[in-house]
Amino acid sequence: MPRISSGASGAEAVVVEPGITSGPRRCDASEPKGGIIQATHVVFCTGYEFLDAVANPGHRNVSTWAFATRPHHPRPKWLTDYLVWEGSDPYLYFRSTPDGRIIVGGEDEDNATSFQDPVKLGAKSRTLRKKLSALLNIPIEEPDYQWAAAFGTTADGLPMIGAVPGFNQVYAAMGYGGNGITFSQIAAEILSAEILGHQDPDGELFAFRCPSKRSAPFPAPKPRAQNPSRCTNRSRSRNPAHAKTVLPA
To answer: Does 90 sit behind a cis peptide bond, omega within 30 degrees of 0 on the bond before it?
Structure first.
């Protein structure tokens, strides 16, 4: 049984997840061993998976594969300074490491469990190796390491960042779709502004925008007064199309 606390005197708390409750002024999280963590705000940074409380048809998990070569593998000199992401479907991305390895990944599948298949891991590594060799025009040796995993994505390619509808002082950043380098930075700015009582100028782009399986359609967010002196720098572009060109995290 999750432990439920009222938070503020006379207020009623609601269960967000098993072991998590929220009230108007405080959130309590129950640890598996029975401890209680109290916080004014709770942020779920589950970029590669989705919480049951906010799951909806716009979320899905996909599988992806990657491998790393041995150290000091032959490679073009320019690769030392660049990350490469091929704009095809399925895509391919690769980079080098300080010790001279080449890391390559991609070959995503729209399946949440395919990454668990050891046979498919070998097949995907061979495909990645063949494609990388063709792109760089050099032989690629057998992988030193190979791995696979699932990550969360959304129907429109944008993550879910912001207040969790229906709950007090509970926020989430999830569904990065492999673009964690960019979207995690955006999430930090949006969520910090939200907690401080500001309205981030790009917040609506990434807000929770689909009805939950467990609740009625989300209400429109209430506008908040901005405090320009406490807002973050907005000098760089936030065009989602630009963000899509970043190497997956």
So the answer is: yes
Those residues whose C-beta lies under 8 Å from the C-beta of residue 151, and which sit 6 or more positions away, are 47, 48, 61, 62, 64, 176, 177, 178, 248
pTM across the whole model: 0.63
Whole-angstrom Cα distance, residue 54 to residue 166? 10
Question: For residue 106, what are the CA distances in angstroms to 29, 53, 57, 84, 85?
Answer: 36, 30, 24, 12, 9
Q: Which domains does the chain have, with CATH numbers?
A: 41-57+157-243 (no CATH), 60-150 (3.30.70)
Other Cβ atoms less than 10 A from the Cβ of 85: the count is 19
What are the pLDDT digits (tens) for 130-157?
Answer: 999 999 999 999 999 999 998 888 888 8
pLDDT digits (tens, 9 = 90+) for 77-113: 999 999 998 888 888 999 999 999 999 999 999 898 9
CB crowding 140-176: b at 16 or more within 10 Å, else e: beebeebebebbbbbeeebbbbbbbbbbbbbbbbbbb
Pairing verdict, β 42-44 and 36-39: unpaired
- Residue that has been written with the tokens 């057998």 in this structure: 142
